[in-house]
Amino acid sequence: MLDTDQLRSFLAIVDSGSFTKAAERVHKTQSAVSMHIRRLEEQLGCALFVKQGRGAKLTAEGESLIDYARRIIQVEAGAVAALSRRGLRGSVRLGIPDDYAESFLAEVLARFNRRHPLVEVSATCEASQELAAQISGGALELALVTDYPGLHGFELLREEPLVWVAAVRFRIEAGQPVPLALGSGSCVWRRAADEALAAAPRATRGLFFSKNFSAIGSVVRAGLAVTPLPASMVGDGLRVIGPDVGLPKLPPTRMGLIHAPGRQTEETKAFADAIRVTVGAPARQAA
Questions:
Q1: CATH homologous superfamily for the domain 91-152+259-279
Q2: Where would I find the H helices in 145-247?
Q3: Are 239 and 167 in contact (CB under 8 A)?
Q4: Over its length of 287 residues, how does the chain's per-residue pLDDT go in tens digits?
Q5: CA distances from residue 73 to 3, 29, 68, 137 in whole angstroms, order as listed
Q6: Do domains 91-152+259-279 and 158-254 have the same CATH topology?
C-alpha cells in the first residue's frame, strides 16, 4: 500500500517545483522528503525524478503518479471529514475577477479541496469594484480584488509592477498609433492605463474593449493589440513592452482580500488561507 505521507511529499515537490520548498509545505526536513521519495521509488520499482542541473525533473512514471496521488489524498481527506465529523462541510461564496480566476483559481481550489473535500465553492467573476459592492451587501463572503482608492477592509497579499504586454509576434510600424485592448470603464488597470497615457505623447488607439479577460487575452495573443497586466501574469507567448514603442511607465498594482461584514465562517477562513498561500507567496519572497 502506498503511504499517504510519502504521496504528500511527492505532490509538494510537484506543486512547488523543488525539494526545498516541498519540505516547507509539508513541515519536514529536506532529507525527510528525499527519504519519502526514495521509499516510494523502491516500492514502485521505478524512478520518479531525474536530476536536471541543480534541480529535478519528473520521469514519465512520475507524471503518471500525479493523478493517482491526488485522488488517494482526496479520498483519505474525504473519509476523515465524513467519518470523524470534524471536517468542514459548508459552502464559500467567492468573488474574483476573471483575470485572477484564470491565473490562480485552479491552484487555490486544488489546495483547498485536498484539505476540505466536502466544502462547496461558488464563484462570481466581476470587476473589483462590483465585487466590493457585493461584499458590502452580503451577497459574497470573500473576494480577491485589485486595490483602488476608497476600498475599505483591504488585506494586501501581493504588490507588483503593472506592465504593458503584447504577443511575442506583435509588431507596429513607426509612427503608427499603438492598438490597445482594455477592460471595462470600472477596470482598475484600464484607469491606470488611461491616466498614464493622458500624460504621455505616444499616440494610441482603442482597438478592443471588454469586461471579459479571456476575450482581451485572445486579441493580445493574436498579436493585434497591447494590454496592461501585472508582471507575474505575463504568460507564454507574451512579452513586456513599453519604452521601445513609447508607452509610459505604469504604476504598481496591489492584489488582496476583502471580507463581508460580520463573523466569518470556518469555511471562509480556510479558503482565505488557501488564497494567501497561493497568491501571497511571491510577495513574501520579494520581501
A1: Periplasmic binding protein-like II (3.40.190.10)
A2: 188-198, 213-221
A3: yes
A4: 889 999 989 988 987 788 888 888 788 899 999 999 999 999 999 999 998 777 788 999 999 999 899 888 878 777 776 666 566 778 999 999 999 999 899 989 988 887 888 889 999 999 999 999 999 999 999 999 999 999 999 999 999 999 999 999 999 887 889 999 999 888 999 999 999 999 887 889 999 999 999 899 999 999 999 999 999 899 889 999 988 888 999 999 999 999 998 888 889 999 999 899 888 754 333 32
A5: 10, 21, 9, 37
A6: yes
